[in-house]
């Protein structure tokens, strides 16, 4: 059953578009928002901490949590890695009175829109050149083939998925303040509690 109150906000978009930066900025401005910590089967990267950056599980542990209802939506991505929503983290933060902000793929966005009355925002790059530049800044060692694959996937997400979202915002390079103003206007209009 959908909640009447707005408690969950989705900020999505193709990898490298800036959804993590926007999420961190929103949490810094409005501490009533907390990020949902995603569960995954991938290995921790440099400096990532279990239960803070992700809940890291083996594939067997992840599948057990799907079976017992602790992982409520999930996706097996193109690299064979599982990502999903860990219900104990979600329930705990909602019980504490926080709004939840997350950056899921289309599967998660649809789940939260249907089951939790989430508002969904899709960030678009201002240009392919800037999206490519962001990928290279994040991972200077990225192989040309991998970069090409990621950009092709981003094009597919924008073409096939962006129309599902309630709002679309172009996140212009170097204009975070403008993007934030647009998002804050949306969350106020949608009725999220900000204090």
The level 1 CATH classification of the largest domain is Alpha Beta
Residue share in β-strands: 15-25%
* Main sheet record: 5 strands, parallel
> Would you identify the CATH H-level superfamily of the largest domain?
P-loop containing nucleotide triphosphate hydrolases
The name CATH uses for the topology of the largest domain is Rossmann fold
- Give the ordered list of helices and strands: EHEEEHEEHEHEHHEH
List low-pLDDT spans. Answer: none
Strand order of the largest sheet: 2-7-1-8-9
Strands, count: 9
- Helix count equals 7
Span of the ends, CA to CA: 25 Å
Number of domains: 2
The whole-angstrom Rg is 17 Å
What structural class do you assign from the helix and strand content? alpha/beta
What is the mean predicted local confidence, pLDDT?
92
CA-based shape: globular
Which CATH architecture of the largest domain is right?
3-Layer(aba) Sandwich
Helix content: 40-55%
